[in-house]
Specification:
Largest sheet of chain A: none
Mean pLDDT of chain A: 85
Number of strands of chain B: 2
Oligomer: heterodimer
Strand content of chain B: under 5%
Number of helices of chain B: 21
Shape of chain A: flat
Structural class of chain B: mainly alpha
Low-confidence stretches of chain B: 503-508
Number of domains of chain B: 1
Number of domains of chain A: 2
Helix content of chain B: over 70%
Strand order of the largest sheet of chain B: 1-2
Number of strands of chain A: 0
Largest sheet of chain B: 2 strands, antiparallel
Amino acid sequence: MTGLGDRILGLCLLVVAVAYGWVAQQWPEPFGGSEGVGPETFPTMLAVVLAVGSLYLMVKPDADTQWPVGKTALELVVSIIVLVIYALLLEPLGFVISTTLAVGALSWRMGAPAKSAFAVGLVSAIVVFGLFNYGLSLSLPTGLLGDF
Amino acid sequence: METLGFLMDGFAVALTPYNLMFALFGAFVGTLIGCLPGLGPANGVAILIPLAFTLGLPPETAMILLTSVYAGAMYGGRISSILLNIPGDEPAMMTCLDGYPMAQKGRAADALAISAIASFAGSLIGTIGLIMLAPVLARFALTFGPAEYFALFLLAFATLGGITGKNPMKTVIAAALGIMISTVGIDISTGTQRYTGGVLELYEGIDFILAIVGLFAISELLFFVEARMGKGRSKVKMGKMTLTFKEVVSTVPTQLRGGLLGFIAGVLPGAGASLGSFISYTLEKSVLGKKGRFGEGDIRGVVAPEAGNNGAASGALVPMLTLGVPGSGTTAVLLAMLISLNITPGPLMFTQNADIVWGVIAALLIGNVLLLILNIPMIGVFVRLLSVPPMYLLPIVTMVAFVGIYSISHSTFDLYFMILFGVGGYLLRKLEIPLVPIILGLLLGPEMEKNLGHALILSDGDWTTLWSSPLSIGLWLVAGLGLVLPTLVGPILRRRMRNAIKEGPVSD
């Protein structure tokens, strides 16, 4: 079946629209009684618009795009994981160490030789850290390296 | 001349050494952002917002910085078009047509120089247009009531896909999603908690800056990972400058035509810089007819689109500054900066924040001169930086985005959220759902709801008030056209653009 991507997207968006619209109907009436417009008026309109749009997508989907498969898909997942780990380790490890690892890992996965990738990571981490902490006096976490 | 007086005040703001320094910095960074493929102007400006914010810059300085970046990015786009045959940003697409052949013939330095001059001319014409048109439009916009504003916002969304847009329904969906995200948080008029799920971080709503940075920066990184373009491409040698004064003079009519057409395209909803450069290029081709050798490295083929897209860039600021309704991705990001500075965009800005508006306009003029200086003698610096391969560049850009977002709130929660937006942005872009309407929805959603509420309260709950004045009916009609026209005219225009490009440089 062609247009599978759009159809699935349409289905997901329809679920979102219905859930979003339904939640809006559950809010208690605001203090002071009901007026022409309540907190639910605008969201209800949006839910209708999105529902119509998603139905249209399911009925008249565009042709499918090329989705990454195999190794490329894996690379994408790895990149996302690297980003999440970066956010996770930013505070405990400190900015310089975690940035070296994150920038290095991403550059390396994008095709740079491992050595120069991590070197670029380290240099950029130190430059940005210096710029922020001393130049702009915005403190980035120092983590393991402690205060200096 | 009231306007002239304001402009002089603007110069007084923009010419302080502090602001001048930021204008220069912005112009430099902007050119860099424009010329590096993989770092588009909207993306670049978005990454700079948190930085401008955490630096605690005064509002006029922050706006001057970002507008200079914006103007610079329009200059920069041409560099990679000419040297790499890849447009640095979308409007620079047409510059590839004659710019790259010119570079292949060993006239790269000439192409870069003449395009800088053309950019300057286009931008100057556009800015003069902005100075003349903006106050008039702002005065007119003062007559708008809430119902007209509501219709105007709809118009902005409807025309955002542009005449060349592919599937208007996808624009509608994107806009709805963006507005939906903006409704998360405590409702301002009633205090009802909406879609927060009891999560404390969501009470104040989702910060649009982190959404914008996530959508642009992170999804761009993922696209490059997928495309495996890490190593970049080979570029043409620069060569010596052989441009003669006579040659520059011979392109003056082209510059004027291009700049003017570009400005008009920039002001009109749904046209934008890409169409501006396309129209100026095709007009030039038909005006000069057989006299030109377009597509083979004709100098006027470089001048026309560059004057066009820079004229359009200034033109696009008109609706953003006067109505608070941006017509392009980058102006939407500029609007985000205004909103986060707590300045209500729209006609009142011209009276209440005159120093900012005119400071920005004056900064555009000054920025242009700075850019011309940066782009002719110092072009070598940018050319050298162009050879930084994306595999190093994009991770560093991503890291800067992380730092910016982290420094706003010092919370890693925001970082996870940003990654989430990035992954979502990647998926949506793969499904050809445009991101700019989402961002515009995030920004305009609250205003739209507020105006709807006001209109309905004024009319005692009568919905027909939304289309009862001639002005609002007109706006609704244009909005309707904005959705219908692309399906009728879009395929034809798109085919023409494709034919013009033939083999087609890969757009990033």
